[in-house]
Amino acid sequence: MAIPEFIKTLRANIGTELLHVPTVGVLAYDDQGRVLLVKGTSSGLWGAPGGIVDPHELPSDAAVREVWEEAGVYVELTELLGVFAGTQFSVVYPNGDQLSGVETVFAARVISGMPRADQEETSDARFFDPGEIERLTCYPHFLEIHRAVSQRQPHPYFKPTTWCPPRA
Q: Which end of the chain is more exposed for a tag (fewer CB within 10 A), N or C?
């Protein structure tokens, strides 16, 4: 993944300590109902296009930008699917950098473009029928998103709360 400049600046000051950042993901669908996935260059795993929201950037703008950068497809966001976080959305990179994300996931429809990998962050980009996803080697966090949104709730997804005050 390309490292945003503001993350590089923070890392210069805090080293590999845990950063908690906002991220986005996009489930972009074509006219046949297939979903656009990208394959990570370094991991070889499939997942939805997405990434870190830059300072002062709207999550919606970050979502559209990430799909364009990673897959060469311009999309229109159609729905907020959910907000995800937890251990599946945390990573320790090979250099020791720790990152925890809170991912806002959008649905989108394709406006233009043909899937193509950027060859920096992604090595492949293509559409898949939803039933094919379980047979792919995917990022664990993407599978959590896929399974949650496949249930098609009438409202955006979020995990039920587990916190309560000490004397409730």
A: C
From 94, 102, 105, 108, select the one nearest 147 (Cα to Cα). 105
Q: How far is C-alpha 108 from the geometric centre of its chain's CA atoms?
A: 13
Average pLDDT (85-107) is: 94
Count of CB atoms within 10 A of residue 3's CB?
A: 11
pLDDT value, residue 161: 85
The H or E element spanning position 30 is: none
Per-residue confidence (pLDDT) for residue 162, from 0 to 100: 83
CA gap 33, 50 in Å, rounded: 19
Residue 1 banded pLDDT, cuts 50, 70, 90: low
Does the structural domain 5-150 have CATH classification 3.90.79.10? yes
**CA dist., res. 51 & res. 77, Å (int):** 16
